[in-house]
């Protein structure tokens, strides 16, 4: 089985990518809803669409809004493996099946860790939110995730 490494990759950012003079365009935020047993939870997330965006993920970010995050659409279902190298923030990694249900939540992934997190089942997307955010919002495996176009 092929495993893919996403989010918080161990790539070394170029000096230009980190230079203060070079400003990235503001990210377009996508509304995303998670249907929980306690009602819907609403987020506005960035989408990592390109390989370069998926390689960078949330690396080097120093903050993330409480209802913010990043969605990694993977296309065809596959086992996606993530790590936290070069990621400053603790994150919850929410692995989403093709039917939109949550397969697994890797809670409070440790910043800078090279330990691997994966759902051990094929998924079509991964959502990263603030560490501890899933538990605080009552998000659990089996909940359904929806966003425009899905």
Count of beta strands: 9
Average pLDDT works out at 84
Summarize the helix and strand pattern as letters. Answer: EHEEHEEEEEHE
What composes the largest sheet? 7 strands, mixed
Strand content: 35-45%
Kindly state the percentage of residues in helix.
Answer: 10-25%
Enumerate the strands of the largest sheet in spatial order, edge to edge or round the barrel.
7-6-8-4-3-2-9
- The helix tally amounts to 3
The end-to-end span amounts to 26 Å
Radius of gyration: 15 Å
The global form is globular
**Secondary structure category:** mainly beta
Indicate the low-confidence ranges by residue numbers: 1-25
Structure description:
This protein is mainly β and 150 residues long. Helix content is 10%, strand content 37%. It contains three helices and nine strands; from the N terminus they run E-H-E-E-H-E-E-E-E-E-H-E. The chain has a seven-stranded mixed sheet. It has a two-stranded parallel sheet with strand order 1-5. A hairpin with a 2-residue loop joins strand 2 and strand 3. The longest helix has 6 residues. The radius of gyration is 15 Å and the shape is globular. The N terminus is likely disordered.
Describe this structure in a few short sentences.
The chain is mainly beta and 150 residues long.
Q: Main traits of this protein?
A:
7-stranded mixed beta sheet; two-stranded parallel sheet; disordered N terminus; mainly beta; 37% strand; globular; 150 residues; 10% helix
